[in-house]
Fold this protein.
Amino acid sequence: MNRKEQEMDRIYVGVFEMFGSPSARGVSAWTHPRSDLTRFHDVAHWVDLARTLDEAGFDWLFFADSFGYPTVGGQMVDAAARWGINFPLLDPQLLLPILAANTRDIGLVVTETTGLHHPFETARRFATLDHLADGRVGMNVVTGSIQNVVADLFGHERMREHDMRYDMAQEYLDLARRYWEESWEDGALVQDPSTPVYADPARLHRIEHDGRFYRSSGYLTVDPSPQRTPVIFQAGSSGRGKEFAAANADCVLLQSADPAQMAANIADIRARAAAHGRDPRSIRVVATQSFFVAEDARDAQRLRDQFRDAQTIEVAAAMFVSNTGIDLLALDPDKPLSQVPLDDVVGQMGQSNIDRFVGPDGEGPTVAEILEQLRVRGIRGSQIVGTPEQVVDRIEDLLAATDLDGFMLDPLFGGEDVRDFARLVMPELRRRGRIPEAGVGGTLRERLFAADTATPRL
Ligand SMILES: Cc1cc2nc3c(=O)[nH]c(=O)nc-3n(C[C@H](O)[C@H](O)[C@H](O)COP(=O)(O)O)c2cc1C
């Protein structure tokens, strides 16, 4: 088998985390004795987790981020504070250099919300991070959830519309990319004490940009990092979000849903990528996925049951309002979601969690059914339960049914889930030839695209 064929079977495995928010994603599990979700202030907790993942051969550790918390009518809902839903949430970009210094191979992916900083500032910050992490940095580009709160916090006159946020994001990323790719030629950093020449002025280029949202001219004040442009992750699943992902992303994140729906989504993203002149197979598409795994299937089921019993409607509803602007608890429980009119908030925040429950004809589950689904499965959805062999069988079924390139483990109870997965499932994936030995090395871009390119760069 040649290298390319081997790579066909290779899947990519990341881990989803948030720096805080013990009830992230509308999941309530931090009160369970298994959970360590309240230990997030402890640097040793993160270093230990990152090292475990690095040694087990995970491809990346991912930090989501957001500036908002659940509100109704401008007020934070009580459940957000009482349960810790997107609140408190610390800045994960500040964790990255610490994790980089304490790991060797694993990719470190962190979220950047567009529209809040100037793209030059982002280009400088991520170039710095990529230097400090020796080329292992990924940037999850989001237009940002909970935009009504973002508008309040940042003093915007009103919330920016959904599609305009993506227009801004495109210009933002284009400008940052010009700074990363064009400002310094290869070899511009000379560092020759004998001449002396530190950087060669002839090989530095001034970027000029005068666009719809941003203006900037000058030079990137950081010399090129190993990857120059960090690996771009993207997770928008609305039509406009998918378009943005297809044009820009190296790695597209989906939330797990029904496999047939996911397969259609993936085919759509790959087709859109082809329409942008990209090789549709050059995009890695992965879905979030939770697991309850134990050597004995009954123990795995017990964990799943305990998790299910801990979930509350209150937390599920608070998460949903923060994603969509829709307060399910204030609606007629016997009617579908189409009872809610779209306005300048609803429909302009996240769309995918509305689309998920509204059929093309406006029909769909009732509000009571939606709440129960969210309570049991959280905002993200799918869970796999069983022994390591059963779990990997289910993963392989999912890959075959969807054309996914891998998945991102969403650990519901926290570190113990990750450790069990590393101990039980990673060796089984490796035994079946799905993942390489740990210690792959290289930049994150090389790690994800080794079959397609031998360069650390775009
Ligand atoms: C795996 C995954 C991770 C995400 N991480 C973030 C995040 O860190 N911050 C954020 O604001 N949105 C995050 N999102 C949400 C999306 O990026 C996007 O904001 C949301 O889907 C709404 O956009 P849309 O209407 O295009 O779908 C994530 C979504 C998924 C599936």
The pocket of flavin mononucleotide is lined by residues 64-66, 111, 140, 142-145, 235-238, 240-241, 253-255, 288, 350-352 (CB under 6 Å).
